[in-house]
Amino acid sequence: MTLIALAIALAVASAVVYRRHGVSGVSDGLALGAGMLRQVLPLMLLGMVLAGFTRVALPEDLIGRWLGEDAGVTSVLLGAAAGALLPAGPYVMMPLLGSLLGAGAGVGPIAAFMTAWSIIPVSRTLVWEIPFLGGAFAASRTLVSLPFPFASGFAVPYVIKLFE
Amino acid sequence: MVGLLLGAIGAAFGRGGLDGLLEGTRASNALLWRALPYMVLGITLAGMLQVLVPPRTIARWMGDEAGIAGLAIGVLAGMITPGGPYVMYPVAAALMNSGAGIGALGGFANSRHALPMQRLLIWEIPFLGVPFALARYSVAIAMPVITIVLVPMIYRLMPASARAARRTRPSVDDSRDSS
After folding, report:
1. B179 with B54: CB under 8 angstroms?
2. Do B70 and B150 belong together in one domain?
3. Per-domain residue ranges of chain A
4. Residue range(s) defining the domain that contains residue B93
5. In a domain, B61, yes or no
6. What pLDDT does residue A70 have?
7. Does B28 touch chain A (CB under 8 A)?
8. What average pLDDT does chain B have?
9. Do B28 and A53 touch (CB under 8 A)?
10. What pLDDT does residue B56 have?
11. Looking at chain B from residue 49 to 108, which residues have their Cβ under 8 Å from any Cβ of chain A?
12. Are residues B32 and B60 in the same domain?
């Protein structure tokens, strides 16, 4: 979603709030937003510094080398670890994974990588999940989700045969 | 958190020396300025939605008393929620403040992470191809289902103080319940 789409959604929501609840409704909405921002900002800033330095410490070509050749179980484990650690949006990650898959990387490691990147990413948990939803929720969800990248890495290579 | 931070800074220094530190600072700064406008708009949107949808309604649809239907609503909402974390997390926090159940929230979060329609159509299918995208998606369908069952159980084992911290936010609790 672009910034413009988000701004339009906010404008529409604000207009509906104004029609239903008037100026006091709009100011309530702004106050709720400001309260949330105040609460999450300090933790988010720390998380962003962490994400920025991780990006320097783990450049994408390193990940490419980890996943480049398919070495069975080891590659699935490496794929899951790399996916959890590498902070990047889909606009970086999807082209990277697509090119690795095209260059002969295994389906299992790529599936493990993608699942770890989307469901247990360290930087998103620190920047977004803990500030907004709290440590208790983030820890419970992460614990339950830990096996998912491995399940994906081992199951997707078999399931993909049904779709080829 | 501080340990992780020091570890990442150390690793950046190990790879690139002082340039690595400078680059890390620059990358963090770039992240902040890129995310900030989205974050402010996303959080304000969540504030407006909290005014529009009273907590009672959220509790009725997604609270623990809503049962299986509440869990299913969480999972479906996760699949169709567009936008990045700057939309998802403020909305999830608003739902949490308004009394959504932990199972429904876990289902919302993990289906948003594992089964988002937007990412499937815009990113996965074009870049990874239909067979890979569909195979990954079919395997991932089990994930939110496991999540809605197990996350509430594990959440109950967390220290009471950590759980209570998120349920009482003075700035949010007085939102209009009467509308």
Report:
1. yes
2. yes
3. 40-162
4. 53-169
5. yes
6. 60
7. yes
8. 86
9. yes
10. 84
11. 49-52, 82-90, 92-94, 96, 102, 105-106
12. no
Same domain, B87 and B128: yes
Cα B137 → chain centroid: 19
- Taking every pair of Cα atoms in chain A, the longest distance, rounded to a whole number of angstroms, is 62
Per-residue pLDDT at B174: 43
Is B70 among the domain residues? yes
Distances (CA, A) of A127 to A2, A3, A19: 20, 20, 35
- Report pLDDT digits (tens) over A134-149: 999 999 999 999 999 9
Asked which of A36-40, A68-72, B84-88, B131-135 is least confident by mean pLDDT, the reply is: A68-72
ipTM of the complex: 0.85
Interface of A with B in 104-143 (CB under 8 A): 107, 110-111, 114-115, 118-119, 122, 124, 126-129, 131-137, 139-141, 143
Among A9, A33, A50, beta carbon nearest to B4: A50
Overall number of domains in chain B:
2
Tell me the pTM.
0.85
